[in-house]
Amino acid sequence: MDLEQWWSGVMPETRDWLIAHNGEALTPEVVADISGAGGLVASDSWWMGARGPDGLFLSDAATDWIEEQANGEE
Fold it and tell me: Domain segments of the chain: what residues?
């Protein structure tokens, strides 16, 4: 499922967290909510970024998309 699709399915608190912490490693709660909304975090989707010791990140394109949502640039 694409970012645009799961974005409306996550809790408002998750969207707020993603906007406030854009570019940071995702918390386990955020990952769980994205997964629950249909976002396959184990996929090779364009919105998935790096995985490392600090956690799971969204891609640069996804962080740009979230910033556009936050700025009302839909």
Answer: 3-70
